[in-house]
Specification:
The chain is α+β, with helices and mostly antiparallel strands. It has a single domain, classed as 2-Layer Sandwich (Beta-Lactamase). It is about 40% helix and about 25% strand. Helix 2 packs antiparallel against helix 3 and helix 2 packs parallel to helix 5. Bound molecules: methionine sulfoxide. The site of methionine sulfoxide (SME) has 15 residues, from helix 4 and strand 6.
Amino acid sequence: MTSCRFIILLSKFKPKIFMAEEIIIENSLSKSEKYTALYPQLQALLAHESDLIANLANTAAALRQTFGFFWVGFYLVKGNELVLGPFQGTVACTRIGFGKGVCGTAWKEQRTLIVPDVDAFPGHIACSSLSRSEIVVPGFKQGQVALVLDVDSDRLNDFDETDAAGLEKIMRLLELKI
Ligand code: SME
């Protein structure tokens, strides 16, 4: 009788063991809290994988899963162009020139760009007609831009300094994998 009750208690209160491949973020958290909760989980997810593409792919998926971004992905510097890398969302332009669009401008200016209204950004490249606002964060290797993280929203003015700080911190993590 005693041993039977013990087994029932064990199965009822069995501690949940999460694999590093799982991202768990409470939906009720604020945006800033979500970035804070995501960071250590992403750190764990990337810790044991050295392949850049695998890490970019999981980062794009984790960001999409956490924030429900309309489009999130990476462009990698290859010669004088950015070439599409791992992403989550609808099909996108594959190549962007230096200084072209928001991505190419972030590359050229070596800084994060927040675009509240893509129609007001001269030279914006519309991969999707539904895109309304955008943030692009460059990643560096030996002082040179090596890739950019691009996030698009189908709503105007959807990105702010919280996104810039959160995504830049994630980019510093990814730079360790380049
Ligand atoms: N809008 C970007 C192009 C990439 S897509 O949005 C995925 C730009 O202007 O650089």
